[in-house]
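Cross-posting from the chemistry board since nobody answered there.

I work mostly on the small-molecule side, so proteins are not my area. We synthesized zinc ion and want a rough idea of how it might sit in this target. Sequence and SMILES are below. Is it possible to get a predicted 3D structure of the two together?
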Amino acid sequence: MTSISKAPPLYPKTHILAASGIAALLSLTLLVFPSREVEAKKTYLSLELDNGSELVLREKNDLHPDGLNGDQDISPFAKIGQPSNTSNSAEQSIEADDSTRPNTETADATPVEPNHKTVRVANGDTLSTIFADVGLPATSLHEALSSSKEAKQFSRLKVGQALEFQLSADGQLESLKSTLSDLESISLNKNEKGFTFKRDIIKPDVKTTYARGVINSSLFLSAKRAGLSHGLTMDLANVFGYDIDFAMDIRDGDEFELVYEEKVANNKHVGTGNILSARFTNRGKTFTAVRYTDKQGNTSYYSADGTSMRKAFIRTPVDFARISSRFSNGRRHPILNKIRAHKGVDYAAARGTPIKAAGDGKIALAGRKGGYGNTVVIQHGSRYRTLYAHMQGFAKGIRTGGNVKQGQIIGYIGTTGLSTGPHLHYEFQVNGTHVDPLSQKLPMADPIARNEKQRFMQLSTPLMARMDQEKTTLLALNKR
Ligand SMILES: [Zn+2]
């Protein structure tokens, strides 16, 4: 004990905290290189959904900007409604010669029944050129659009959008309909008073779906092969964001399974909901997760047994300490006398008090860091990061690049850097954003409450059993 302290230090109220120096977390989105492929696939799906009586051209994705050729992807910009044998279809709308064309040969207006015409919006089309192509006069367009406020939505056209015209025997517009998305369509129907606007919204059914994949190049490619959307893959990575560092730890042979909500309308897939349960085997170690909403209405993921919610963070990295300053978004700094946010929590304790790692992780920094003084930054998986500042010194073996276990002593309370007295300044980041480590909102921080254990297990057990069963079935099918 060589350090001699003078008068017993006042509990520091604060210290500097221009918490800007921390390198932003490597965003998971950086890993998402195949997103274009996913987008392309989505487009493909929606085209199929739109497939009415018309020709829908599917192109091989050989013009993909990234050269990422998926097995069945088409370009997101695939020319819709332009069969390859008609070269003039794109320009067709512009020449509009006004003559009614009952037997139009162009691709845009394909007659199905004499008075029903479906038009695909092409580049350069406007509603008036399309009306003209269908053989309707400008007065008809005006009458339809001015019939109501909502009717004007028909003038906001997107390339590829389908417009369905129903004409009367004498060539008057009877109805106009367009499908805006898998779940939404709008229509105008003529009656005695003019046109009535109608919007149809389909509420999708939600079913649960199982998927499994084995990684042999990247999580995103394997997930895509397993039929997971980009968003769902991101969700999966987030669910295991504490346990697994998706930037560093993923290996060929890693395996994932999940049960998730799938939204279905008219027997077509229209989107996904939440991941209900998942299992991820990373380098031989298996992690489980079950989505659970507790009686207070808080939703979080827990490990399947509910007891040991993965390795929860230690909420307080110093024992026998007192909170001397809480997390806030604006307070007066005692040294700088300016309003500054305090993006962490201060724990006042005697000089030399041990500081513990809040969770397992990799030491991103153990060294001096400006006003923070002696600082340790720990990266926990890909999502979480903790910072410990003003240390007197580092514990043995603590150095940049090393690993730490939860609860391991990393250093000792001091007052290095811009600090008014011995304390720990502690910060917690989720995906690069500072959060209050004392808030109850931190995901996965606490195990399931004892009085909800039974309720949780009633949910968890069947979900795990389903994954076991589906996997067995799937593997048996693959063996054939
Ligand atoms: Zn502080």
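Reply from a structural biologist on the board:
Welcome over. Reading the output above for you: The radius of gyration is 31 Å. The pocket of zinc ion is lined by residues 15, 17, 325, 342, 344, 346, 425 (CB under 6 Å). Happy to explain the token format if needed.
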